[in-house]
Design goal:
It contains four helices and five strands. It has one domain (3-127). A three-stranded mixed beta sheet has the order 3-2-4. It is extended and about 60 Å long. The longest helix has 31 residues, at 18-48. The termini are far apart. By secondary structure, it is α+β, with helices and mostly antiparallel strands.
Length: 148
């Protein structure tokens, strides 16, 4: 899993506090989960084939804004640019459905973060550091010769 035994350091060699290293590992695990979950959700919603759109009103007092959230590719294919609002209105579903799905997903992520944090608190070894790719910038000698 790309980890080495060494003292935890930041990019310039200064020691990193244990809590920060622990939180970096928690963040890495959470991102890995959310990326995987995102792909799974796209596939699941596409397979359900509801063919609907949710109109989420995010307006502010100064301007009106609506997010158009399509449930799947079939719904997106049912909408033409010329008659966008009319087509969306024909396949619109209550935004409460989407909000329920969002709340369920949020609860699962919070549960995952708590579970992973508890596991890290139990098993975390600060001497084990995740290997990271070193970034290098190569610059020719005369690259900045024209800047004056």
């Amino acid at each position: 899993m790309g980890r080495s035994r060494a003292n935890a350091t930041d990019g310039i060699g200064a020691p990193t506090p244990v809590k920060e290293t622990l939180l970096d590992e928690l963040q890495h695990r959470t991102w890995a989960h959310t990326n995987e979950r995102y792909e799974n959700m796209l596939t699941a919603w596409d397979r359900r084939g509801k063919g609907c759109v949710y109109l989420v009103d995010v307006s502010e007092p100064s301007e009106k804004n609506i997010h158009f959230v399509f449930s799947d590719t079939r719904a997106l294919g049912a909408v033409c640019f010329r008659s966008f609002l009319k087509d969306c209105g024909a396949i619109e579903r209550p935004v409460a459905e989407l909000n329920r799905a969002l709340e369920q997903e949020k609860a699962e992520v919070v549960s995952l973060v708590r579970k992973e944090h508890e596991e890290l608190e139990r098993t975390f070894d600060p001497s084990v550091v995740r290997l990271r790719k070193r970034r290098k910038i190569l610059v020719r000698k005369d690259a900045f010769g024209d800047i004056e």
